[in-house]
């Protein structure tokens, strides 16, 4: 059967890429382009953009994870390996920590960094919406600053819940809805300063404009809490960090 062009277009699943509406397939490619572009300067830009605060947010996440020797841990969208490094040290030689990312450039940077620091932990190119791990396998699952880039967040959260052991914990660290009195100056910073920094440091203003837009399109604290509950997680709570610039959500599987 031959469909008219307008019907074919209407049948195409669309989503958002920042403030733009694009096909789901197109978003995958566009997000990949962003992270291929910024991988080499990712950590430098994180320090500049947040004034080093991202390190404090990650330290809080590591503390909340409560990793013990022998734990099995999955770090999704682990990028340059900050969390995986800390988790591997805490899980020790009897533990199992997986560094995963859907972006090859980011994963390569993280894998090489860990190896250079004497940390030999498995690294895998991995789609969070189709995790290649068995049910009830991990004691902890984490995703830091990666969920907002996923097309089907509810599917990814369900997959994270699936691979957790009963009694396991999911930790989602992500940019979130900022405290209302800070909204205007935060917007000025996000849409003026960030792209300028991206241009000067990473020679890529557009990727950092996308970053600012993607944060605004990401579910706020209460909405993400409900999404985690809908994915089957219990005792879901969140911690606002730096007046809500970022938030850590945690949930348990029982």
Descriptors:
254 residues; alpha/beta; seven-stranded mixed beta sheet; 48% helix
Mean pLDDT: 91
The protein's oligomeric status is single chain
Number of strands: 9
Beta-strand percentage range = 15-25%
Backbone shape: globular
Helix fraction by DSSP (H/I, runs of at least 4) = 40-55%
Largest sheet: 7 strands, mixed
Content-based structural category: alpha/beta
Radius of gyration: 18 Å
> What string, H for helix and E for strand, traces the elements in order?
HEEHHHEHEHEEHEHHHEE
From the N-terminal CA to the C-terminal CA, the straight-line distance is: 48 Å
What is the spatial order of strands in the main beta sheet? 5-4-3-6-7-9-8
Which consecutive residue ranges, at least 5 long each, have pLDDT under 50?
5-11
Count helical runs. 10
């Amino acid at each position: 059967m031959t469909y008219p062009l307008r019907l074919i277009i209407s049948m195409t699943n669309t989503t958002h890429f920042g403030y733009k509406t694009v096909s789901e397939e197109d978003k995958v490619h566009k997000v990949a382009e962003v992270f291929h572009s910024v991988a080499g300067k990712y950590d430098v830009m994180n320090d500049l953009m947040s004034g080093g605060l991202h390190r404090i947010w990650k330290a809080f996440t590591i503390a909340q994870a409560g990793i013990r020797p022998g734990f099995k841990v999955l770090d999704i969208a682990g990028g340059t390996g900050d969390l995986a490094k800390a988790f591997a040290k805490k899980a020790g030689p009897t533990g199992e920590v997986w560094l995963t990312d859907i972006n090859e450039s980011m994963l390569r940077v993280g894998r090489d960094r860990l190896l250079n620091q004497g940390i030999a932990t498995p690294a895998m190119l991995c789609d969070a919406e189709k995790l290649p791990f068995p049910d009830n396998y991990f004691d902890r699952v984490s995703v830091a600053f990666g969920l907002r880039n996923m097309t089907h967040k509810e599917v990814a959260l369900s997959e994270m819940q699936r691979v957790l052991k009963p009694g396991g914990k999911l930790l989602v660290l992500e940019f979130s809805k900022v405290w209302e009195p800070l909204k205007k100056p935060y917007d000025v910073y996000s849409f003026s300063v960030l792209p300028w920094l991206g241009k000067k440091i990473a020679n890529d203003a557009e990727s950092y404009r996308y970053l600012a837009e993607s944060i605004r399109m990401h579910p706020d604290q209460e909405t993400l809490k409900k999404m985690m509950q809908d994915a089957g997680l219990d005792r879901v709570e969140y911690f606002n960090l730096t007046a809500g610039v970022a938030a850590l959500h945690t949930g348990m599987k029982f």
